[in-house]
Amino acid sequence: MGRIRKSFRSRWGTAVAAALPLVLLAGCSTSGGSEGGRSDDGTVTITMGLFGVMGFEETGILERYEEENPGIEIEAEVAGDEQTYYTALQTHLAAGSGLKDIQGIEIGRAKEIVDTQADSFADFSGMSGTDHFLPWKLNQMTTPDGQVLGLGTDIGPMAVCYRRDMFEAAGLPTDREEVAALWEGDWSKYVEVGETFMANSPDPDLSYMDSSTGLFNAMVYGSSEQFYNAEGDLIYDENPVVLDAWDLASEAATSGMTAALRQYQPEWDPGLANSTFATAVCPAWMLAHISEKAGPDNAGNWDIARAPQGANWGGSFLSVVEDSPVRDEAMDLVAWLTAPEQQEYIFQELGNFPSSEQAIESEGVSSTSSAYFNDAPIGEIFGAAAQEIPDEQVLGRKDGTIKDAFTQGLQLIESQGRSPEDAWSATEENIARAVG
Amino acid sequence: MATRTPAPPARERRRRWRDLPHRLDLRVAPYAFIAPFFVIFAAFSAYPLIFTFWVSLHRVELATMDRMEWLRLDNYTALWSDDRFWNALANTFTIGVISTVPQLLMALGLAHLLNYRLRGSAFFRVAALTPYATSVGAAALVFTMLFERDFGMINWGLGLFGFDNIDWESRKWPAQIAISCMVIWRWTGYNALLYLAAMQAIPRERYEAAAIDGASRWQQFLRVTVPGIRPTIVFTIVLSTIGATQLFGEPLIFGQGVNGITGGADNQYQTLGLLLYEEGWRNYQMGRAATVAWAMFLLLILLFVLHRVLRRVLSRRA
Q1: Can you give the three-state secondary structure of chain B, one letter per residue?
Q2: Closest chain A residue to B38 measured between Cα atoms?
Q3: Using the beta-carbon criterion (under 8 Å), do A94 and B64 form an inter-chain contact?
Q4: CATH number of A156-312+380-435, picked from 1.10.10.350, 3.40.30.10, 1.10.10.10, 3.40.190.10
Q5: What are the domain boundaries of chain A?
Q6: Which residues form the signal peptide (chain A) (predicted)?
Q7: How many Cβ pairs within 8 Å bridge chains A and B?
Q8: Is the pLDDT of residue A83 over 60?
Q9: How close does chain B come to A425, measured CA to CA in Å?
Q10: Quick check: B42 contacting A, CB < 8 Å?
Q11: Do B137 and B250 belong together in one domain?
């Protein structure tokens, strides 16, 4: 009996062993199944791929849409780091599987999507009720033949976040109007204030700014031509805006006034929590991060002043995958999420500044103030900053990667003691590698 | 079969048909039995290997894999003259040495201790294996926090002895040491258990004989234990070398974000694995990434050949 059982079992074993590779191969050919779809009872499931703090998942606005639209279910997946997110998106686009119905696109990637993936995303150009955006916002996601590949979520008007208590201790004014007057019109004055701060601050361990990269970004993003010209050629190495920004940022980096922290990396957060620096150049979407990481202990210590010059750092889009089985429903959802009312709501909740002109002009946005930032009138400050954003911003394919290369170039000066010239040539080499 | 007699054709044919399953069983079944390995090997090893080589001869971007530009061996010559590649190779080597040597020595010592009769030995053996069971990501993240510049625990501990804060991530050797610590922590217990298993296979009599001859504990360790587990030591060295060549997750997480991908702003801890990742998944140049992958493959083959040659030379001398 035992012998029969044994041979029986081994025969099953071989059968399983023979079938296994087939099963494995079959498993490879069927795609991930992360796309949404329609179930038999008529429920529509829409999947979303998001990154950072875009505000949809965080404010509960998606649940509201589900309640208002019975039969629709939304599944959002949020990646913390945009670089990781975009890499996965590229892989999914190349493989043609694993895509969500709705994908978030960061401004640094907009040009690459427009240039290389126009066929993969649905066209919003004919959709009614989408004419409320700032004109330049949608231009960034429009192909030469007029397809609109995504609708805008937020934009990144700039201000300077500063610590009232530290400014006071260093004998500087604390009122946000007076602080703004210190550096009005020129970023180099912002660095000069830093020298005064460093000379007069009673605590030698305090730094003036978190990192020189914030300053660099603010200066570059205030110009309509940045790393590329309108023809798509790389011009960063001759663009006076970039060169000036590099000079001033590297001056700040060598002067010892920066805390040499890397923004959005783990060391930045304890820096905020333990109050190691007095200012940060802050786009609107950074407010949520600062207030969360600096914590309730620092409420009222932080305040916001106008930046010397307007600039647009960051901001995103929502796009719908063309081949999605629920494409129309997903487009409706995107139109709703980016509608003025919803943008206004997210701004009030998180501080992500609307890209909808109609929302910016609304009472709800312009009258918003932030209790955490000493009741700073953020609607007014960022609204004024948004006015200063150039109406045309020339984007390039590798904007995001080039920004990262400059971030690392400034780190070479700040943390590794390399000379600015040396760091510049290392950065040039990195950029050549990234665009090649 | 030897007494084959001519049979009428019809009968012969019928018999052939009847025998067919048996003959198939004999002739074909063996192939069917070994097929799973070859199918899996072809699908998951041979095909990727060959396709990667094909890709490495082209200029291809990740988003447009269907558009390939034929480059012959240009990617390889470019890699050969690329400082970044030699830097990554050197980093891979130095991190490999800093992590492997102390790790194997500590594992040997640990195994020797665990080999004694001691109370709760099962507990210690399981404890030695726990780091191995932890996910790379979780462990690396915790270590990254420990090695943090301003508020990390290690700098805090060093501060008690009057040391200034070390910027672990930005400086070359501190960064490589920090990464090596993660590798050592993770693999020491695993290697110790391999050694322990080998040690327990050494007959007790040898130790008794050595003791009778007046050998001290240390001499017993050197003269009996180490020669007794030599094959295992070679095996762990081979495993560690392969692991060191492929080092990726620890430095990626240690750097956090952009710096992780490039192995530091100055590439001060960029390993070959990270270089591959940077080319493929930051610059989206799959051709160049595939070239790095093949360079790593050739490197491992070179190491393997060197190892064989060295062993032959050594055994001939012995």
Answers
A1: CCCCCCCCHHHHHHHHHHHHHHHHHHHCHHHHHHHHHHHHHHHHHHHHHHHHHHHHCEEEECCEEEEEEECCCHHHHHHHCCHHHHHHHHHHHHHHHHHHHHHHHHHHHHHHHHHCCCCCHHHHHHHHHHHHHCCHHHHHHHHHHHCCCCCCHHHHHHHHCCCCCCCCCCCHHHHHHHHHHHHHHHHHHHHHHHHHHHHHCCCHHHHHHHHHCCCCHHHHHHHHHHHHCHHHHHHHHHHHHHHHHCCCHHHHHHHCCHHHHHCCCCCCCCCHHHHHHHHHHCCCEHHHHHHHHHHHHHHHHHHHHHHHHHHHHHHHHC
A2: A21
A3: yes
A4: 3.40.190.10
A5: 37-154+315-364, 156-312+380-435
A6: 1-26
A7: 96
A8: yes
A9: 12
A10: no
A11: yes
For residue B48, the enclosing domain spans 17-75
B58 pLDDT above the threshold of 70 = yes
Smallest CA–CA distance from B152 into chain A, residue: A267
Contact A17 B36 (CB under 8 A): yes
Residues 76-115 of A with CB under 8 A from B: 81, 83, 87, 90-91, 93-94, 112
Examine the pLDDT at B62 and tell me if it is beyond 90. no
What average pLDDT score do residues A101-107 get? 96
Q: Is residue B9 part of a domain?
A: no
Which residues does chain B have within 8 Å of residue A93's beta carbon, measured at their own beta carbons?
63
Residues B71 and B99 in one domain: no
Residue B318 pLDDT level (bands cut at 50, 70, 90): confident
CATH 3.40.50.720 holds for A37-154+315-364: no
Q: Which of B75, B101, B122 is the last residue of a domain?
A: B75
Residues B61 and B171 occupy one common structural domain? no
Interchain proximity A265–B167, CB inside 8 Å: no
Looking at the structure, do residues B218 and B288 belong to the same domain, yes or no? Answer: yes
- The total of structural domains in chain B comes to 2
- Whether residues B67 and B83 fall in one domain: no
Cα dihedral value A254, A258, A248, A221, nearest 10 = 140
Q: Which of B75, B103, B118 represents a domain boundary (last residue)?
A: B75
The answer to whether A10 faces chain B, any CB pair under 8 Å, is: no
Beta bridge partners of A163: A302
Looking at the structure, tell me whether residues B67 and B81 fall in a common domain.
no
ipTM of the complex: 0.84
**What is the mean predicted confidence (pLDDT) over B80-84?**
95
- Domain at B272, CATH number: 1.10.3720.10
Q: Which residue in the block uniquely carries the two structure tokens 């493929």?
A: B280
Global pTM reads 0.86
Q: Is B114 on the interface with A (CB under 8 A)?
A: no
Query: Would you say residue B236 lies in a domain?
Result: yes
**Is B147 a member of any domain?**
yes
Option in B65, B258, B285 nearest A94 (CB): B65
Same-domain status, B90 and B59:
no
Residue B11 lies in a domain: no
Indicate yes or no: CB of A267 within 8 angstroms of CB of B148: yes
pLDDT digits (tens, 9 = 90+) for B260-299: 999 999 999 999 999 999 999 888 899 999 999 999 999 9
Quick check: A262 contacting B, CB < 8 Å? yes
